[in-house]
Specification:
single chain; alpha+beta; four-stranded antiparallel sheet; about 10% strand
Length: about 375
């Protein structure tokens, strides 16, 4: 359809297949009439706001990209001696509802992953709010010291500026979340929007004769968010568990995002994530060991590693020997390859150049050992 915003361009009816959902939702709204008014609900057509929201409902984000991002974050936080924890929402979750948008209620999208997320600043503010509300009977001076230590201070005339001892990362889902269209129906719409006017009439006063006004808005259903917190220095690590406990309590009792008073945005610790985290840390350690191993190799040895990646590990010795007999390497390079083959055969008990028995299989291994030995001596 033609809209006032695009007089000379026919707008796409739906988001492109590989388009950024957040960019589409925020910047390409096209549910206007020619008068610039939003399309209103009638017998033939739904409200323009509802139409637009329903264009982005369903799964969003690429699961592989989200998993890879989560793995990188876990690796980073682990290096910083921090900790990661996944939380499952108890129900719907909304983030960025106060952002400006033609549908009246906005949404916060990750700039590259195109999924709802909770910014690190929001996570920090949430934990701070919980600590301030639940001071555990601490004296005000002691509580202020904890707040200053954990979260830092702004530059004030009587307080020197200080950076907090902990880094709060963005909370991002590690699997594709599902978006849905929800509805709220305020019964006194004009009282909420115009109740502060000096003159009051029948429309802008709180009364029971007002009709409900359906307002659609975008929500996330049963999202799983991965939170990361890291100490700025090793000296701060001792208090990390206390900060994580405060985060867990804040998500469980205060909730995150908008409409928490209506039951949105409450989270609980995800079951099984510790085991997942341990597996990820093993992968990180293996990757680091592999990187150190590769860094210790010469360029020629590195080329051998690349050559062997195409074959199963139990075929490495035979594949190298086959390439060696086909004159893939010459001179000193051939000796280096032969030495590697010897090491592989010794590791699997295949190196038996001095075998004297009659076992056919071992005789074959003896011949192979002698063949390799000839390259070592040549």
């Amino acid at each position: 359809m033609q809209t006032p915003l695009y007089q000379e361009y026919e707008t796409l009816p739906n988001k492109p297949k590989n388009g950024h959902t957040g960019l589409w939702f925020d910047r390409f709204f096209n549910q206007y009439q020619n008068s610039w008014d939003l399309i209103k609900a009638d017998t033939d057509k739904a409200d323009g706001r509802t139409i637009w929201i329903k264009k982005v409902v369903g799964h969003v984000g690429d699961s592989k990209q989200l998993e890879a991002f989560s793995q990188r974050q876990i690796a980073l936080v682990t290096k910083l001696n921090g900790s990661s924890q996944r939380y499952d929402s108890d129900w719907n979750f909304i983030t960025g509802m106060g952002n400006s948008h033609p549908v009246e209620n906005g949404f916060s999208w990750h700039p590259t992953l195109a999924v709802p997320f909770l910014s690190g600043a929001s996570v920090k503010g949430l934990v701070r709010a919980w600590v301030e509300m639940n001071d555990e009977g601490l004296e005000r001076e002691v509580l202020n010291q904890r707040l200053t230590s954990w979260f830092g201070t702004a530059d004030k005339s009587d307080v020197a500026e200080k950076t907090g001892d902990f880094i709060f990362f963005d909370a991002v889902p590690d699997e594709s979340p599902v978006l849905a269209c929800d509805i709220m129906t305020p019964h006194m719409d004009e009282w909420y929007s115009k109740g502060d006017e000096l003159e009051h009439g029948s429309k802008n006063i709180p009364a029971d004769w007002h009709e409900p006004v359906p307002i659609p808005f975008l929500v996330t259903k049963n999202i799983k968010l991965v939170f990361h917190i890291a100490p700025r220095t090793a000296a701060n690590k001792e208090q990390l568990n206390e900060v994580l406990t405060a985060l867990t309590d804040a998500l469980e009792y205060l909730g995150a995002g908008a409409k928490t008073s209506s039951g949105y945005g409450y989270f609980s610790v995800s079951k099984g994530f510790k085991e997942h985290l341990q597996a990820e840390q093993v992968k990180i350690e293996q990757a680091e060991a592999e990187a150190q191993h590769l860094a210790s190799l010469s360029p020629f040895e590195l080329s051998l590693e690349e050559f062997l990646k195409s074959f199963p590990e139990d075929e490495h010795d035979t594949r190298l020997l086959k390439a060696l007999t086909e004159s893939k390497w010459q001179g000193e390079d051939a000796k280096v390859v032969a030495k590697k083959i010897q090491g592989l055969m010794e590791a699997t008990n295949k190196w038996i150049p001095e075998f004297t028995g009659t076992n056919k299989k071992k005789i074959k291994l003896k011949d192979r050992s002698l063949q390799v030995q000839s390259y070592l001596e040549g």
